[in-house]
Write the structure tokens for this entry.
Amino acid sequence: MELHELSINQASEQITKGTFSSLDLTEAFLKQISRFEKYLNAWVTIDEKQVIKDAKNLDRELSNHGPRSPIHGIPIGIKDIYYTNGMRTTACSIINSDTIPTFDSTVITKLKNAGAIILGKTVTTEFANADPSGTINPWNSHHTPGGSSSGSAVAVASLMCPAAMGSQTGGSIIRPASYNGVVGLKPTFGRISCYGVIPVSWSLDTLGPITRSVQDAATILELISGYDPKDPSTLLQSNFAEFQFVTEAIKPPQIGVIQNFLDNSEQHVKDHTEKVVTSLSKAGAHIELVTMPKSYEFAESIHSTIMDTETAEYHKDTFKSRPNDYGPKLRERIEKGLRTSATQYSTAQRLRNIYTHDIELLASKWDILLTPSTHSTAPKDLTTTGNPWFQSPWTLSGLPTLTIPSGLSPKTNLPLGIQLITKMFNEQRLISSGLWCEKILNVQITPPLK
């Protein structure tokens, strides 16, 4: 196995043993980037000299003092909405093209303190909204890579880094991860601080990792979660560091498969998901079909109202002076948000509370809920990032979700995934169930790069 093919936990073990160095690993990823970045456009900024310097320093520290954490000396990509001290943070917008922050976001601080190497900034859709980026799907260049965390998902899928940070306001971690055949984790709202991250919608935005294994996602979550006095959306119980994940002897979970999402999937996705569910059942999982509560009927409209309004609130001043510097889809969202009345927004938040209560009640009856990660494989349409509505209901309610690859569609030969959901602050169950499903399905797919 080549160095750039290793998972975080595999690489960490070998670096600690001295089999190879962080510098060796970093150079392997930089070589992979030099081979494929010109075709895939996954990165905005990479400071190769600084990356090499960081790797050498961390190798020296390891020799003298041992590793700081399981990600000591591991290169990680960062979505270009996270503030990085001294490194451009553009949000892939002309408006922020020259922005160089003078401080790190809380997540970046925690990653650096854990010994991670900030490999570079990955491409996002403009301000993490709906206007497609220029990133290419490594499975098929005619199909969208998803968004808004398009660069992060593509960088991980194409083995340019073992993990990258994303964000989700609708479906921007789960969908691109699924489209590209990798793992994506959207934690409970409030689990990870958003301080120093350019917002889309303050009451929806959730940060999380994109990786190639469930264990790697859990490793990163443990290191970056926790209460942050700089972010009032974080909660006191959001410290995740005390949890440890045991990969052996995990019991088969009790799974509620949500009929609504099967029925709204394309037929090949539904057929594939039903086969996956059968495999999980044969392996010992207790499976039952469940349906969404009645309040789900208005979830899509209230999510749109909240997201539009909060996006407009953030951009309103710049939008007044530079409306033509925004992409058409983001401009439309801001205009809709500016037209939304206080009464409409208040009603949406009230209905959201009802919906969240109902969904939390449903989720509490099962170890995990299960849906297809997306209603289709990545669409053959580069004017879209895909439909977020298989992911947005969980962002709206704040519940944690995880997508894991489940195979390739026989119709499109593109990746498919299953999405696992659990009640709020139940990530330990989500990840243990994800580890079990990952082991049973044993799906390992990589795009056909040459």
Q: What stands out?
A: The CA atoms of residues 93 and 112 lie 26 Å apart. The domain at 3-238 is CATH 3.90.1300.10 (Amidase signature (AS) enzymes).
